[in-house]
Amino acid sequence: MYRVSSNTRTNPMATFRYFTGTEQLTNIWHDQSCYVTAKHFTGLTADGRRVTVERKIERKPNPSMHKCDARCLNATGFKCECSCGGKNHGAGAFVCEAA
């Protein structure tokens, strides 16, 4: 496995955020396979548990930050520009929370 950098200074185009449920993960690692879907990444929760990533969300450097609504909650793509910062993007059954 190798660590994935999330430093926006090295990638000014777009950044990725990684989630399990509505919790954003840190210290992201990839399994070194040729696939880049969410299930091939793991990350740390706030309490230090290593878990598999459920959602990988792309954020543009200057998102529109519109109010999060059902479009975000039920999204099937991986790009998010709303105010939740990707926290609710495609989460479906989860309760919408402010970022």
How would you describe this protein?
The chain is mainly β and 99 residues long. It has a domain at 2-59. Helix content is 4%, strand content 27%. The protein contains one helix and seven strands, in the order E-E-E-E-E-E-E-H. A four-stranded antiparallel sheet has the order 1-4-5-6, with no helix packed on it. A three-stranded antiparallel sheet has the order 3-2-7, with no helix packed on it. Strand 5 and strand 6 form a beta hairpin. The chain starts with a strand and ends in a 26-residue tail after the last helix. The mean pLDDT is 82.
Secondary-structure-based class equals: mainly beta
Radius of gyration: 13 Å
- End-to-end CA span: 30 Å
Number of β-strand runs: 7
- Ranges where pLDDT stays below 50 over 5 or more residues in a row are none
Helix content range: under 10%
H/E series: EEEEEEEH
Largest sheet: 4 strands, antiparallel
> Count the helices. How many?
1
Shape category: globular
Q: Which strand order do you get reading across the main beta sheet?
A: 1-4-5-6
Give the overall average pLDDT: 82
Strand content: 25-35%
Short overview:
With 99 residues, the chain is mostly beta strands.
